[in-house]
Amino acid sequence: MPMNIALIAHDRKKDEIVNFVTAYESVFEQHRLYATGTTGTRIMEKTKLNVHRFMSGPLGGDQQIGAMVATNEMDLIIFLRDPLMAQPHEPDIIALLRLCDVQGIPCATNIATAEILVKALDRGDFAWRELVHKYKPGVDG
């Protein structure tokens, strides 16, 4: 069952996410990928993956992905944040992370957590989506 996966990376983390996606290309090719502007372009340049690109994060891309989270259309997010650099669109970032918490969407903000989630994808372990629907009041399922 293909999942919708968002890939986001701050400027100083773009090489890291490209290398990560390249290493797990065989896993990601089984899913529908979404990314903010430059991140998506860089991933497509280095892999054979098709990535639906939204706007750049500061121009609304984080919010576009957030809209998919809010409507329960996103299954997993890998968002490699740069905690040492102030981001001009920090409120959008916080809103996206909050929506992930509200909707029960796994969101990796560092490479170690991203690897754990991708290995779960590779094993076919999608139980978190079933749990969200089973135990979350107000979610049909």
TrEMBL record:
Q: Which GO terms describe its molecular function?
A: methylglyoxal synthase activity
The record's section on Pfam families has: MGS (PF02142)
The protein's UniProt keywords, in alphabetical order, are: Lyase
EC no.? 4.2.3.3
One GO CC term of this entry? cytosol
Entry annotated with the keyword DNA repair: no
According to UniProt, the reaction catalysed is: dihydroxyacetone phosphate = methylglyoxal + phosphate
Q: Has UniProt tagged this entry with the keyword Secreted?
A: no
Which family does the UniProt entry place this protein in?
A: Belongs to the methylglyoxal synthase family.
Q: What does this protein do?
A: Catalyzes the formation of methylglyoxal from dihydroxyacetone phosphate.
The protein's name in its UniProt record? Methylglyoxal synthase
Q: What gene does the UniProt entry assign to this protein?
A: mgsA
